[in-house]
Amino acid sequence: MLKKGAKTRIIKASQAHKKDTGSAGVQISLLSSKINKLSLHLKVNQKDNHSRRGLLKMVAQRKKLVNYLKKNDEKLLNKLAKKYNFKA
Questions:
Q1: Is the domain 23-84 a CATH 1.10.287.10 member?
Q2: What distance in Å separates the CA atoms of residue 86 and residue 31, rounded to the nearest whole number?
Q3: pTM of full prediction above 0.90
């Protein structure tokens, strides 16, 4: 789970306009941060299958959003992929 301050920073860094909190770009940014944090947790706690399932669900959701952005705004997708280090 991301803390409020970290979540706010991520949203501000990737929002398209001042009140944008739910666009695909913002959602991908938040999911990528959560995925990275959970991946570190799972490297230490290898038998935590409950968290592993949550990680897989987040990866699947991000993949759906990436496919959406690939069709609609590839420039933004490439920027996010480079920033959060995932395959576009």
A1: yes
A2: 11
A3: yes
